[in-house]
Fold this protein.
Amino acid sequence: MNHTSTASRRARVTLTLSLCASLLLPACASLPAVERSAGARATPAVANAGGPVQSRQAAALLARRWARATPDMKALAIQEEAATGVPLIAGNKVTLLIDGPATMKEMMAAVREAKSTVNLETYIFDQDELGLQFADLLIEKRRQGLTVNVMYDSVGTLSVPQAFFERMKAGGVNLLAFNPVNPVARVGKWEVNNRDHRKLLVVDGITAFTGGINISSDYANSSFFGASRRPTELGNRKIGWRDTHVKVEGPAVAAFQYSFVNNWVHQDAGELPEANYFPPLSALGDKVVRVLATDPDKGYEIYKSLVLAIGESKKTVHITSAYFVPDQQIVDALIAAARRGVDVRLVLPGVTDHGLVLHAGRAFYDELLAGGVRIHQLQVAVLHAKTAVIDGTWSTVGSANIDRRSFIHNYELNLIVLDPAFGQEMERTFSEDLRDSKEVSREQWSRRPMSDRIKEWASRLTAYWI
């Protein structure tokens, strides 16, 4: 099967730009050492629709939510807050969305029902059948009088004809090309190596979508996740990318909306049109979440939360990662968890749109397998999901890959959900991915050809930039 796509071409362009940018930088930035905080508060900070919740109320609320959680989930929430400075938000409904068709159906339905505002932030917005449908819908909502704002990354859309965006602009849609490739387009603030990798849709300030899914025909078809027959038995039917998204309703939507507004304003590319971006929000569910929106070289909140969650794990660490090129601290945390008896499993790509990243990630297999980490490679479908579920209670879905580019140079957005019921959904999803994967044994890996070893060595040299 040929998996060459517009995304793979963009990946090569991204790498070229990154390498060029590296020549302008004095040194490679490094990720911080993540340690438990001795001075953390006794109860995690919690907000709801009415604002911050007092400590006693917060403790009671979390006790009800985590009645079936592991004993140390409270400790993890406290440590995560100390590391990130981001409070928990209670009273949310979170819907797990698998693959492009289901996600696009929900997103487009939400836009069709929009009454006041539509804010879209995306890395890729292709001019293809799916992209044209989405653009037409945005133009139609603007014609109906809604405020429609679209922020797209200028590297992620480098191969897209400018006429595609000019048509939306002519239809009244407010557009912002994030960190333009052309330095003249943003004089004095040229940051070509810092990309907006977030995928965010906020409708009317009351519904938010985020995860790994871009606006692209790569998502026009399903990966046949959960099908009664394995993908290898489905003949010539076109297989889409395997990805994960979430729909969020409730007080946390304001945090997503703020991240959009903040990112737009900091581009110094004009103000957003006046609109009611922050309507009153009521509790719509029982999910307690943390919204982590990271900027380059700032707080590394997504990275810190992942390292802490692995470090606090007692039973299971189940990670699904599209582009897996970890730093040594994450490798050490995974191995340490496995050696203390935690079931540590990774679902990684068996096929990919980015060969350089694939081989750079596989350069860590020897060390991980020797340390007791179990590695499974998803077959047939291109894996693009960025998710994890730890001890069946701590879950994350978002845009950040497990690599230095995501943690240091990209604008990323991840949702943390602290909830056993949602954790069970994530575990079922992980089990389905295992069904369509092949495990890599240590013995099998030791017999791989020398040509693969050379590719791994060469790719690892560029691991910082890919």
In short: The longest helix spans residues 6-22. The chain has a mean pLDDT of 88. The CA atoms of residues 389 and 395 lie 4 Å apart. DSSP finds 15 helices and 19 strands in the chain.
